[in-house]
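Recap for those who missed Tuesday's class. We walked through two folding examples back to back. For each one, the amino acid string is listed first and its predicted structure tokens come directly after. Nothing is annotated here on purpose, so try labeling regions yourself before you check the end of the notes.
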Amino acid sequence: MGELTRRAILLAGGATLGGLAGAKLTSKVPSVAGTKSLQPAGLANTLNDASGLNETPIFRHITLQENPGENLIRRIRFEIDEARREGRPVNVGAARHSMGGHAIPRDGQAITYDNGFVDLNTRDNVFRAHAGARWSDVIRALDPLGFGPKVMQSNNDFGVAATFCVNAHGWPAPHGPMGSTVKSIVMVRPDGEIVRCSRTENAPLFFLTMGGYGLTGAIVEITVEAAANVNLVPTYQKMPSRDFAKFFIGAIERGDVNMAYGRLNVDRETFFEDALMITYREGDDQTEIPPASGSGAMSKIARHVFRAQLMNETAKDLRWWFETDLGPMISGGPVTRNSLINEPVVTLDDRDPTRTDILHEYFVPPGRFAAFIDACQEIIPASYQQMMNITLRYVGADNESLLSYAPAPRIACVMLFSQEMTERAEIDHARMTRALIDRVDDLGGTYYLPYRPHASAAQFRRAYPKAAEFAAEKRDYDPDLLFRNGFWDTYLKDL
């Protein structure tokens, strides 16, 4: 079967939705059903993020394309020095796919990185990259040499250093978050000093920056582990949803799984009753590994299949059949590791100016996964949010970052909702999110921080017990609180 057909099966099933949230570029959105739109009408000096709900006033936004070196450092120092003199915050972003203003300094100086520099060291199986390099740049550079990223999201247009700063994860098994694969970073601290950080050099700052949401300084260069790009063969297994954790953890613990994820059905009649597990193992034939494929015409077709689910229960049933029955029959051949993750988030973007895609993510102890299903069945259908997809992943323990979401192995549950861009929808969505966070907390799990800031301050402190320690250490490195963003302003400034 052709690679494009296989990719269409994956896309139509939502397989690339590990981080799907195409950035909203419009600044004015019409009201829906007589309700108030959340978008301000065309503000001049503003910056938004992927939710389209965070149009924030800023002083200046610049894009830096210099290679790592003195020119880049000089530009960053200029911004830092000016911001300090004028009493303004500064923050750095790349693809800007967060959903709560995490890379936006209110009334401050925003820097966006846009540089694809990548250099592979085949002797040590690591690559060095500009902080703003996208994962597509990494795959493009490493794929012809037989390598790819060891851990990244399931989409390719995020910034590499930004991934470190949110400590994201993906399908590779049995790994923890991407930060576990970072060997070192070079960064400009808030005082303008250039430092190299790793597990053996300036280690406290390294761990503070890992999952630190850009609050500790400006990374300019990052060195990350690479992995061999291999042909993988998928295996599909359907099961009741409450049995998923047992099969999923068992498959990964056997040690031969290279990538893995799961799905649950999202139609309202049998919501979350059925599961599909997809595992990828190295194929017997590794003699010829084709170049990493990308988006094509079939991806556009797959988008229509996926988007037809909106407020259409028949389409949701059809998509589940497409993924669980048709897909395994015609997409069981080998696919390269790099091809699986070489897809941009915009492939399945909604392109509807009245709606936006909103992600949630919850990290659930495997032994409590059945109780998580119960909680979701009670809470989500009672809202009027339109759930489009859920992806289930394995995340190994992270005992390094202060804001760790996985102190022990977890099943990561990535949910995608389509939300009206209205005040009533935001209120309903916030209510639903807080209810889910409370239930997940009761199960010993937590929630992911880069998305809508719906959690209460108390919920944040419970989920991240080292938050006050993080804030105190940040103040030690940045006593003027120069590096700030929406995340700091909402949850950390008062700790």
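Example two. Treat it independently of the first, because the proteins are unrelated.
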Amino acid sequence: MTSQTIKIQYLDESIPKLTYIGGKSDWIDLAAAETVTLKAGEFKLIHLGVAMKLPEGYEAHIAPRSSTFKNFGILQANSVGVVDSSYCGANDWWKMPVYATRDVTIEKGSRIAQFRIMEIQPKIAFIETALEDKDRGGFGSTGII
């Protein structure tokens, strides 16, 4: 596995430095960079405390941690965030758009999201045709168990 070097700017010295969680995943956790109080039904962009210069040809995918809804009752409003390599200025801070399903206070430093970088999709061309392969049965056809 090759290593990539990424330039990173932290909001302030109190933000935990990003690191892998040893041996568990290749995703890296992101934490709230501010304490946020939300009422059920409110929307907020939660500051994640970092800005980065991703390598050309890569993008970051940001998603909630598996425990985020259970612990805080928030949903990431855009389902998954995509940060491309052009989002790299001094004020291009990473934020998580959330919708609160219950009243909640999220303390600064709470791990609420995770990210990984991926190579961008190559250029593709579409050729219009009728598909003739055997079908699987349509949307949701693999069963319920």
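Answers for example two:
The chain is about 5% helix and 35% strand.
The CA atoms of residues 59 and 84 lie 4 Å apart.
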